[in-house]
Write a structure and sequence with these properties.
single chain; alpha/beta; 9-stranded mixed beta sheet; 3-stranded mixed beta sheet; 49% helix; disordered C terminus
Amino acid sequence: MRRVCLTLPTDRACVPALRAVAEEAAYGARHFGVEVHLLVLDSSGARDLAAHREAVAALPPEPGVVVHHFDEDEQRDFLRGAVARSGLAEPDRVLDLMLPSGVSYGACTNRAFLVAEALGCASVHRRDSDSRYQYLDGKPVFPIHHELTALGRRAADVAGLVSRSRLDPALADRPVAVVGGSFVGEMSVDVAEIRALDPLVHDDLIGLTIPAGYPEIWRRNLVDEAFRGAGTAAFTGDLTTLTTVSPTRVDMCNIAFARGVYGRVPLPPATDTIGSDYFLVHLVHGARLPGVLHNRHIVNFHTPERRSDAGFLAYQLRLTKFLLAVPHLQAVYAGTAAAGDGLLDGDGSVRASAVAAVLAASTGPGPVENAERFDVVERSYRKLGGRYAAAADVLAARRERLLDEARRDMADFALLLDAWAPLVRAGEGHPPSTHPPSTAYRNRLPSPKGSAA
């Protein structure tokens, strides 16, 4: 039976999201005859962790659904075992990149990828704790429907199952590597207040995310559309497109990858950096792997913590680090786009060595350019005044450290990319063990060897 991994990484209270994702897992198993491994990777504090344990324990058993709920201690045990078996030269550093002390959007997803490989899964389907599903006729609209319909199949075999195709016919024999949708509701990156306070400052900041040399009309459109997702329109019916999926059209709360992607290449493990987890979407697009874009958009909302003073400051730090990381990442994205078909092996899987070569050859911004980017951020925040000016003071005090981290994060990614294949091999057949009662139930699993489609 084909196994798939539906994962919910979290570091905050999310009982409603946990229950909703469990319903999606049951839907997937029921309608597609797959074994869905619902993987909750929990970095929450003790109080929220206890509430999550209770919620998981109360989930009704569902045929074909296996629930795993791992706290950070259990995740660390699994990683230590994999790192030790891999024989890597810098085990402590690799362990820290996989489970850093700070928030890392890439690292939490990398852990899901590695566990999925250990479980013998054919795909990973990611959701977020600050999102909800849309409804139609009183029933939730689950993205996993389109994900399981298309992932891993030849594009030619999927063409008759979608609303429309915009795929180059030359790519018809390649496998569908990514299926994704966007979000509706509140902006994924909270810059609406910045736009309201000063539209020119908003344009200056968001303009830092646009590659140099773009025609002004394109730049204007990209700035206007940045972080808005699919707007606010309610779901009324399915619209699916077979295409090479643009990274600007999907959100990481609503995406799934085939193992021919994440089993070969991890995400950058940068800490406190929004957007770092979109690397594989750019990679798949640059490699011209087929994907399906759908409109079963997730409902995004901002948690109360995000609106608190501490949450606001933490988020501005993550946004700043992203703006400093952008030119480093864009240099790699340009390299992968230029490499194109050369990124793939004969069966349409990503070649890690080709990605590593692009990463090594990429020339990011020099110290002067990144310092100028930092100046734009600090100057913009001071113009906004209030709590943004206070955030500028904090950022200014950390200036040299933040600039240094922007450079080192790419070196860390290169190290993890080299370590990824040994880590994956070391994890195969050794899924994480759990310390009761951290999971609601775990069906007795046969060896994953040979059992996944």
